[in-house]
Amino acid sequence: HRHAGLILRGPAAVDLLSVGCPLDLHDTVFPPGSCTRTIFGKCEAILWRASTDMFRVEFGRSYTDYVWRLVRIACSDIASSPCQA
User: N or C: less crowded end of the chain, CB within 10 Å?
Assistant: First the structure.
């Protein structure tokens, strides 16, 4: 009950995550099945790449509003690409 999570999928998922995550998420560096602790914006997160274009991001519940706002900003920044969150 202490964590919340989002599933991000679609061809723009890597671009969306790149807005707040400093890792190289190219599929040759972070292939499907990879999982790591990182940051997303200002919060600690667990990032799991379930498939080429699907990620699960888990973070502390207290960051839910912050993460959701960051995702929405990222989606508007990459509006030319399909973004599904």
Answer: N
**How many Å apart are CA 79 and CA 66, to the nearest integer?**
20
Tens-digit pLDDT profile for residues 70-80: 999 888 877 65
- For 7, other C-beta atoms within 10 Å of its C-beta total 13
Strand order in the sheet with 54-60: 3-9, 54-60, 43-51, 35-40
CA 66 to chain centre: 13
Whether 82 shows a pLDDT value over 80: the answer reads no
- pTM value is 0.85
10 in Cβ contact with 53 (< 8 Å): yes
How many residues are recorded in the chain?
A: 85
List, in order, residues 6 or more apart from 19 with CB less than 8 Å away.
70, 73, 74, 77
Q: Identify the bridge partners of residue 60 per DSSP, sorted by sequence position.
A: 3
